Amino acid sequence: MRLxxxxxxxxxxSLVAVSAYSEETDRYRLEKSATGYIRMDTQxxxxxICEERSGQLVCKMAADERAAFQDEVDRLxxxxxxxxxxxxxxxxxxxxxxxxxxxxxxxxxKTMSYMERFLKGFMGIVKDMDKDSGxxxxxxxxxT
Length: 144
Known about the structure:
Structural class: alpha+beta
Order of helices and strands: HEEEEHHH
Radius of gyration: 40 Å
Strand content: 15-25%
Distance between the termini: 77 Å
Number of strands: 4
Shape: elongated
Largest sheet: 4 strands, antiparallel
Helix content: 55-70%
Oligomer: single chain
């Protein structure tokens, strides 16, 4: 009984592996031509021209595929250039807007003066409340 539990999954795995290997080996077809070989990818339809050099098969894309490939490279380069220009414009406009929204030195000093007066007044109120309540001893005793 245990042997069946091992043999059945092993057989299934080997069938899947053989099927995957068969698909991979059937993907390309080679045809002999006058100058070498023509390789066709049966999944994509891409064709390559191959020559035998030093006992190895060296393949190059067919001319029409090379032109299509180069057209796509050119299109992508143009797109990248347009994106770079747009990014530069956006960065420049953002930095200009940020710089224009910053306060001037005079406005900054004026705001600091207001804050300083507010804090001095607030601290004065706290000191007056402290004196009215009998000093800091009560406040400290309440903390412990």
